[in-house]
């Protein structure tokens, strides 16, 4: 897909989402980013989009609410007239031991990490169909893509991200006739969380065959590849520096 004069909706405009927004804009797309609480980062993404000469919009949305998922898509189309690309990046990532885990904790993760991707795709698909096609890119995780949990305390996160892979495959089948390609990215050690210590960062790098963290740019490359392709659908691409083979 050619990115010039397209419209992309990115759920979760923080960190990696900001880099993806800037990359799309540099190639001629108008961008909408959603945010839950990180307004400053979402507005920074919009500023980068506008600096590239494209239109940008930040929308506050609680994607655990089905109505707000649909509203984010509707506001995108109302603002820019179309929707060509949906990138489902919004995620809840909270550590809880199994003993501590409550039904509310479970739902909080499932509703954002898995259900919101489905709901946003469902709202977006008719608009993409009206443009004779589109791209949906979901975000899973390298651990889920590897098919086995490795870290205790992330039970609902792992299950949700495994579900994203299944969702991607099923949506790819459902939407293929409308020329809507659906793929997923499974990031590994890309950007360390702010609370990560130097020792923890080194340990992760040492456990990665390439010996380093990837950085946002590696995800940007993968996203652009999945937007550009006209014949890959239903795939989940690991971007993990070979972490899964060690």
Q: Overview of this structure, please?
A:
This protein has 246 residues and is of the alpha/beta class. It has one domain (7-245): NAD(P)-binding Rossmann-like Domain (Rossmann fold), CATH 3.40.50. Helices cover 47% and strands 15% of the residues. It contains eight helices and seven strands. Strands 3-2-1-4-5-6-7 form a seven-stranded parallel sheet, sandwiched between helices. β4 (85-88), α4 (103-130) and β5 (134-139) form a beta-alpha-beta unit. α1 packs across α8 (216-228). The chain is globular and about 45 Å long. The model has no long low-confidence stretch (mean pLDDT 96).
How would you describe the shape?
globular
The CATH architecture assignment turns out to be 3-Layer(aba) Sandwich
The name of the CATH superfamily reads NAD(P)-binding Rossmann-like Domain
Q: State the order of secondary-structure elements, H for helix, E for strand.
A: EHEHEHEHEHHEHHE
Q: What do we call the CATH topology?
A: Rossmann fold
Mean pLDDT: 96
**Strand residue content:** 15-25%
Total count of strands? 7
* Main β-sheet, spatial strand arrangement: 3-2-1-4-5-6-7
Q: What count of helical segments does DSSP give? A: 8
What's the CATH first level?
A: Alpha Beta
Low-confidence stretches: none
Fraction of residues in helix? 40-55%
Give the N-terminus to C-terminus distance in angstroms. Answer: 35 Å
Describe the biggest sheet?
A: 7 strands, parallel
- Please identify the structural class as seen in this structure: alpha/beta
- CA radius of gyration is 17 Å
Number of domains: 1
């Amino acid at each position: 897909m050619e990115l010039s004069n397209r419209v992309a909706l990115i759920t979760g405009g923080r960190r990696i989402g900001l880099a993806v927004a800037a990359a799309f804009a540099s190639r001629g797309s108008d961008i909408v980013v959603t945010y839950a609480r990180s307004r400053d980062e979402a507005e920074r993404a919009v500023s980068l989009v506008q600096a590239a000469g494209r239109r940008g919009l930040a929308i506050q949305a609680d994607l655990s609410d089905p109505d707000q998922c649909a509203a984010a898509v509707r506001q995108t189309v109302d603002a820019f007239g179309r929707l060509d690309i949906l990138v489902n990046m919004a995620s809840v990532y909270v550590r809880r031991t199994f003993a501590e885990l409550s039904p509310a904790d479970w739902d909080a993760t499932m509703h954002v990490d898995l259900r919101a991707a489905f709901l946003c795709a469902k709202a977006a698909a008719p608009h993409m169909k009206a443009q004779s096609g589109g791209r949906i890119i979901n975000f899973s995780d390298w651990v889920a893509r590897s098919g086995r949990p490795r870290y205790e305390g992330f039970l609902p996160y792992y299950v949700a991200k495994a579900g994203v892979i299944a969702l991607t495959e099923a949506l790819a089948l459902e939407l293929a006739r409308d020329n809507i390609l659906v793929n997923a990215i499974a990031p590994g050690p890309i950007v360390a969380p702010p609370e990560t210590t130097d020792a923890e960062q080194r340990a992760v790098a040492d456990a990665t065959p390439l010996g380093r963290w990837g950085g946002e740019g590696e995800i940007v490359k993968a996203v652009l590849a999945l937007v550009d392709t006209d014949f890959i659908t239903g795939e989940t691409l690991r971007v993990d520096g070979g972490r899964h083979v060690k």
